[in-house]
Specification:
Length: 83
């Protein structure tokens, strides 16, 4: 089951379950701006590509809640800026 992480690992932007987000095969999670512009479509952790994160239907969020663990890593491409 996807974790549905709550933030962009690059800029720390909030990414609630219904948000447009990008993930790699290891579920590293990024906002579209960071994934496409700052990171050039490649995950800085594994080098894999990104895909659109699926939306979990609202009626299943109580039974299968999203993760609350925020992950923020100091990737060179991210700089120190929050978007």
């Amino acid at each position: 089951m996807l974790q549905l992480r709550p933030n962009c690992e690059c800029c720390d932007r909030d990414l609630p379950p219904e948000a447009d987000a990008r993930i790699c095969t290891f579920e590293c999670t990024f906002c579209p701006g960071c994934a496409e512009t700052r990171l050039g479509g490649l995950c800085p952790n594994c080098g894999g590509n990104f895909t659109v994160r699926p939306i979990r239907p609202a009626h299943l969020l109580a039974k299968y809640p999203p993760s609350t663990e925020r992950i923020l890593k100091p990737h060179a491409a991210c700089g120190s800026a929050a978007a």
